[in-house]
Amino acid sequence: MAMLDINDINVYYGAIHAIKGVSLTVNEGEIVTLIGANGAGKSTTLRTISGLLKPKTGTINFLGKDIAGMPAHKIVHEGISQVPEGRRIFAEMTVKENLELGAFIRNDKDGIAQDLKMVFERFPRLEERINQQAGTLSGGEQQMLAMGRALMSRPKLLLLDEPSMGLAPLLIREIFSIIVDINKAGTTVLLVEQNANMALSIANRAYVLETGRITISGDAKELAASEDIRKAYLGG
């Protein structure tokens, strides 16, 4: 069943037509990735799904409800959480405070405590630094914190914007294996990623975005094997 169904959205930044008639589907339980060059509109697409931008036309259906143009905080209530590009953690606050903020829509104290435990099991390094200011963490730890914070709202759909950005190759592999675990535990994932090789290696399906339009879509393994995609995105 389609969890997220985007139909023919057009998004503008002032006079710039950033997203041109994009349609895509994410089914429950999948990892779907959106790949493309810098400036292709990948982040804009995610920001439109999470309510930070409003599409001029088109529909965004999430679990059968049109959420296009709904305010961002209400979309979190619907079950979508975003890990923004550049992490955007609250640098002055502690690791624990950042995670608790992720649960701002909830008031089930026991459930929140349970989820905090779950985040620490998934990211043991965060537990070691629970009372540390988030701004003092390394880039990889900040990425883990941003992911942990998003999971605290118990999302049905997790939007990840460039999780590998600025990380060392070893850490990138670690982050990607955590994304797979999160997905196996029942969270559907829509991943925007510059590292097309890594993204295609964990995704079920993929869409290629070029200057605001989807040019190719299909099974991730098939796209990873395609000569054109290799030339354009995989440094082949």
User: Based on helices, strands and strand pairing, what is the structural class?
Assistant: alpha/beta
Total E-strand runs:
10
Helix content: 25-40%
Overall 3D form: globular
Strand order of the largest sheet: 6-7-8-3-9-10
Characterize the main sheet: 6 strands, mixed
Cα-to-Cα separation, first versus last residue: 35 Å
Which segments are poorly predicted (pLDDT under 50) over 5 or more consecutive residues? none
- Quaternary state of this entry equals single chain
Overview of the molecule:
The chain has 236 residues and is of the alpha/beta class. 39% of the residues lie in helices and 27% in strands. The protein is built from 10 helices and 10 strands. Strand 1 (2-13) and strand 2 (16-27) form a beta hairpin.
Task: Pick out its properties.
single chain, 236 residues, alpha/beta, six-stranded mixed beta sheet, four-stranded antiparallel beta sheet, 10 helices, 10 strands, 39% helix, globular
SSE map:
Layout lengths: L1 E12 L2 E12 L3 E5 L6 H8 L7 E6 L2 E2 L5 H7 L1 E4 L11 H8 L6 H14 L1 H5 L10 H13 L5 E5 L7 H16 L3 E5 L3 H7 L2 E6 L2 E7 H6 L1 H7 L3
Parallel strand pairs: 3-8, 3-9, 6-7, 7-8
Antiparallel strand pairs: 1-2, 1-4, 4-5, 9-10
Helix pairs in contact: 3-6
Task: Offer a concise description of the structure.
This protein has 236 residues and is α/β, with parallel strands linked by helices. It is 39% helix and 27% strand. The model has no long low-confidence stretch (mean pLDDT 92).
